[in-house]
Amino acid sequence: MKVMFPGSFDPIHLGHVDIINQAANLFGEVIVAVMHNPEKPVGMFSVTARVEMAKAATSHIKGVSVNAASGLAIDAAKKFGANFIVKSVRNAADFDVELQMADTNRAVGGIETVLLIARPELSFISSRYVRDIAQNGGDVSKLVPAVVQDAITKVKK
Q1: How far apart are alpha carbons 86 and 67 in whole angstroms?
Q2: Which among 31, 62, 78, 129 could disulfide-bond with 4, CB atoms 3.0 to 4.6 Å apart, if both were Cys?
């Protein structure tokens, strides 16, 4: 079974990696779709850099591929032949947003969404907070894979 995990992944963090690992264990094949979200400001890394970091961060997980995608997630899921979309939820606010998106995707594209929950010790991590901490000189090494930490260090130089 093939699933797609869409997101901006700017940058990918340990909570994302946990969800990707869970999805691979449940479904066998996971397509990580690195997407541009027009509602989010331009982030820290280009789409190309985010794809490369996601590939490196998930290289140890069997059945994972990483691709850039644009437009609607539902269209990307169809393009990649995904049976389901996988999303993660951290809290009730995430659930409300993801539920509405899942219902919309089902109505528009006929594809179901599976919601997964990151391990508690990772569930608080947000790319936005990672960017904020990193851009203000803070240490994000406990929040991101080593490849991301290295990329952040290079950006700060």
Answers
A1: 15
A2: 31
Active site residue 127: yes
Distance, in Å, from the CA atom of 36 to the CA atom of 77, rounded to the nearest integer, reads: 15
Catalytic residue among 8, 87, 88, 127: 127
Output the six-digit token pair for 150: 């290295």
Which three-class secondary structure state does DSSP give residue 43? Answer: coil
d(CA 46, CA 25): 29
Q: Residue 64 forms beta bridges with which residues? A: 30
Going from the N-terminus, what domains does the chain have, and what CATH number goes with each? 2-156 (3.40.50.620)
The 10s digit of each residue's pLDDT in 52-69 is: 999 999 999 999 999 999
154 among known catalytic residues: no
Binned at pLDDT 50, 70 and 90, residue 88 comes out as very high
Rounded to two decimals, the pTM is 0.94
Give the SS3 label for residue 94. Answer: helix
pLDDT level of residue 43 (50, 70, 90 thresholds): confident
Which DSSP category does 142 fall into?
T
Kindly name the residue from 2, 90, 106, 123 that is annotated as catalytic: 90
3-state secondary structure of 144: coil
